[in-house]
Amino acid sequence: MLTIENLKVFHGPIEAVHGISLTVGKGKCVSLLGPNGAGKTSTISAICGVASCTGTIRLENVDLSTKQIEARVRSGISVSPEGRRVFSNLSVEENLILGGAIRSDLTEVKKDVSKWFDTFPILGERSKQPAGTLSGGEQQMLAIARALMSKPKILLLDEPSLGLAPMIVGQIFAMIKTLKAEGMTILLVEQNAHQALQLSDYAYILNNGQVHAEGTSEILGNSDSLMAELTGIT
Amino acid sequence: MEYAAQQTMNALAFGAEYALLALGLAIVFSIMGLVNFAHGEVIAVGGYTMVAFAALVTANPLIIILGAVGACIIASLALERVAFRPVRYADATTGLLTAFGVSMVLQNLFLLLVSPRPIAVTSLYFLDWPMEIFGIRVSSLQVFESVSTVVVIMALMMFLRRTTLGLAMRAASLDFEMVRLMGIKANRVFAMAFMISGLLAGLACIFIMARRGSVDPHLGFNPVLKAFVACVVGGFGSLPGAVLGGFLLGAVEVGMLVLLPQEYGGMKDAFVFGIIGLVLVWRPDGILSPTQEKGDKL
Fold this sequence. Notes:
The complex is a heterodimer of chains A (234) and B (298).
Chain A: E1 2-11, E2 14-24, E3 29-33, H1 40-48, E4 52-59, E5 62-63, H2 69-75, E6 77-80, H3 92-99, H4 106-119, H5 121-125, H6 136-148, E7 154-158, H7 166-181, E8 185-190, H8 193-199, E9 202-207, E10 210-216, H9 217-222, H10 224-231
Parallel strand pairs in A: 3-8, 3-9, 6-7, 7-8
Antiparallel strand pairs in A: 1-2, 1-4, 4-5, 9-10
Helix pairs in contact in A: 3-6
Chain B: H1 2-32, H2 39-56, H3 61-84, H4 92-113, E1 119-120, E2 130-133, E3 136-139, H5 140-162, H6 164-172, H7 176-180, H8 186-212, E4 214-215, H9 221-234, H10 239-259, H11 268-282
Antiparallel strand pairs in B: 1-4, 2-3
């Protein structure tokens, strides 16, 4: 589904990611793990077309490397970014409608908005409220729902649990688990290694912009040294 | 009583004109962070189109008006494509200097290719009819100006609230990159902003021309300066702020004309800007300045 080869990501003159390669199979959940500054968000930004990069990014054998941000989204990539970035001046409902902006089936878009309000009743209750007034957890739910409104082929989730209370983190991961069960292809960037590995089929561990280790979640989860490195607990 | 009503109508008419102009500036600024000082020249393009239509095509005022509005929209879109698109992601200073540059180039083109002298336009005679509403004598221009501004503002509100592109424009004022991450083409959003700005300039052009009766290369300079002041007072980047600022400026201007003794009439602008200064002391970012994002709570 998503194949990345020799990806180098640049922030101005600084090379943040040094030629990583990774693959996300259809219907799989793959995690990108690693400490702060490892290059996880830079990788997501490069896949979306936001950060400048070299290397190859292919989605279902279509080369996205030279495409603009909008074209990549229209090819089937959708992102729930770090820090949520909901449109705080728009209502919850308007955020969701905008998430489905590339779809032409407006009636279906409205039905999907209602579906998300059924899934997350709290968003339904606050549908007319500016998104900026929601709590962090509610904003995260909205950001993920908004990303799914475009009916993407692959969902990129960047730090969905960051800054949220443990109970809310549980809800968010339960949501991701449901999405995975429904067959959604997911690339998950997380610092919460334990939770991420429980969800993922495969994981890449980044450090200093390079792939430090990779493997199935069972193998990585059972490696005490790697887990100690990721969690900082020895 | 009748005098007060007439002056209120005056204030509304002036305010409506400033509101249209300020909205034209604000809609581009809210998305692109660009203060488009070439907006005045777009208005002048409309004025010269009126002259050309009246001389070469028809005397029908409706067709002349449609031609002027159309020309303003095309001019605004052309400026976006030719001048502002290449500096879209540059810093604000580059955009501002580009706008000044475009403004100077167009003014000089009018001087060289048309005429430095004012050219009269007499086609808008229907905007100079006296009317009587509830016993109050007003001019048809005041009525058209107020009514059409209200209609345009309501239509714009509907567009911004009910259409996907309108929602995208509102969202773009906050986080343009995220709008692109929704798959919405940046070019469409920018082009629509300039198209609306051109439409508003076209409408304002009709009323300015009806009032002045002639067009010259500097036709748009003063109105855009007033619109800039209205935007600053209302809160730059806020569309409701631009409307409020426009009407407030109109009210203060007419208020000064009415209240100042005749011998101080020449100091009207000084008093107006003095009051505007006091408003800015009270609200330095403008009355309805958009809420600044304080960043995420992370």
